[in-house]
Design the sequence.
């Protein structure tokens, strides 16, 4: 009798997983083609397009939140470019997914163009008017757009943080990198050998200048919930690699929420939109925490469209290594951070974990004391804010974004035409 390989069952599982992934990919492509066939002609690049600046987004709906948080700054930039004499339609968005294109038409007045094929991308990127293209992530499809030499390619991270992805060598592919502040510049300059620091431009976090309106869900909750200090708990997702595994929801999320509610805190729970997409343990933990929140009058599950109003109504924030932690610094309110539980997670030395109160695996019991008894001075909070974000006086960050963008446009225009 022939002996079967000991790893046959493992190979069979791998084969089944591969087949399942292939089937999902095929179904997604088929669905995308259906949506593409239903797009009207005005979704495609137009001969009359004369965009001066644009945003490129090459991935799908599961990551569209990355672009959405830049829509308000882009809308303000469009208005500023109009005021500066750059035409009636100076800003456009080019995407590669028909579903993303249709979605964006419902959430912004900015012109949205779609092209899956190179021909349409050529038409958009080779426009004689185009001077600047923004990128909000490090996705592989970005390199299909980076090959066009005329416009200046500018990287915008979809959030400031000290995740290892923030010092990716991919940043060298861009003509400019718009950084949040001094901390980001120092981080990049110390990590990426050969990157000219003149390519780094501080713009803060322009999103923080957006006028904020308290969510109706909060107003209703606030009127009914027992009184108490409010904690904004916004854990990140599981990450797409061991080095990026900063999320801890599956390790201690239920414990932390239960402890806060039991201690009399009101908890706004806002999970990352990608929670559970790669790890079913995170999906299970998400369901468990949602059930805990739903069963307690002090808990609010936050499903609103953006992170903004929470900064005004919460007294404390409990976050991991994500952009929420760094945006929260603008409030100058106390912050507690959660260290990653996975040993492969890459934590940069000298960062926010070392500058703020933290808890980690095995030290969760200290959370209530840290939330209750923080004595950090306003000066310390202000110093952290200045180091990571620069001035957060109302309007200062969007003004820096305007200024940096117009400088890039002027520089590229001189390079292409010899004229200012």
Sequence:
């Amino acid at each position: 009798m022939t002996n079967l390989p000991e790893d046959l069952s493992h190979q069979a599982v791998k084969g089944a997983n591969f087949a399942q992934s292939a089937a999902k990919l095929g179904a997604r492509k088929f669905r995308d083609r259906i949506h593409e066939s239903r797009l009207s002609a005005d979704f495609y690049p137009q001969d009359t397009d004369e965009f001066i600046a644009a945003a490129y987004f090459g991935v799908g709906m599961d990551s569209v939140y990355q672009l959405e948080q830049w829509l308000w700054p882009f809308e303000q930039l469009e208005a500023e470019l109009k005021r500066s004499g750059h035409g009636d339609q100076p800003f456009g968005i080019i995407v590669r997914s028909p579903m993303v294109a249709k979605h964006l038409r419902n959430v912004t007045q900015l012109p949205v163009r779609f092209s899956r094929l190179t021909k349409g991308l050529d038409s958009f990127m080779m426009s004689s008017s185009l001077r600047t293209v923004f990128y909000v992530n490090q996705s592989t499809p970005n390199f299909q757009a980076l090959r066009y030499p005329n416009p200046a390619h500018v990287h915008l991270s979809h959030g400031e943080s000290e995740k290892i992805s923030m010092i990716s060598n991919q940043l060298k592919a861009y003509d400019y990198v718009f950084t949040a502040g001094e901390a980001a510049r120092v981080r990049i300059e110390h990590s990426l050998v050969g990157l000219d620091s003149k390519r780094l431009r501080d713009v803060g976090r322009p999103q923080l200048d957006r006028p904020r309106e308290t969510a109706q869900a909060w107003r209703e909750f606030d009127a009914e919930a027992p009184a108490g200090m409010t904690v904004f708990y916004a854990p990140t997702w599981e990450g797409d690699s061991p080095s990026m595994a900063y999320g801890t929801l599956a390790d201690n999320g239920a414990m932390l929420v239960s402890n806060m509610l039991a201690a009399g805190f009101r908890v706004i729970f806002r999970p990352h939109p990608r929670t559970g997409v790669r790890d079913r343990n995170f999906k299970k933990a998400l369901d468990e925490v949602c059930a805990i929140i739903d069963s307690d009058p002090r808990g609010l599950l936050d499903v609103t469209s953006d992170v903004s109003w929470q900064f005004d109504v919460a007294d404390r924030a409990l976050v991991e290594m994500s952009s929420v932690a760094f945006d929260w610094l603008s409030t100058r309110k106390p912050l507690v951070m959660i260290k990653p539980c996975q040993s492969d997670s890459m934590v940069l030395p000298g960062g926010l974990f070392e500058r703020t109160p933290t808890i980690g695996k095995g030290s969760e019991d200290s959370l209530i004391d840290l939330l209750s008894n923080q004595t950090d001075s306003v000066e310390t909070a202000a110093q952290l804010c200045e180091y990571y974000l620069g001035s957060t006086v109302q309007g200062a960050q969007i003004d820096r974004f305007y200024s940096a963008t117009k400088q890039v446009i002027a520089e590229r225009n001189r390079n292409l035409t010899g004229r200012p």
Summary: The longest helix spans residues 8-37. Residues 329 and 384 are 7 Å apart (CA to CA).
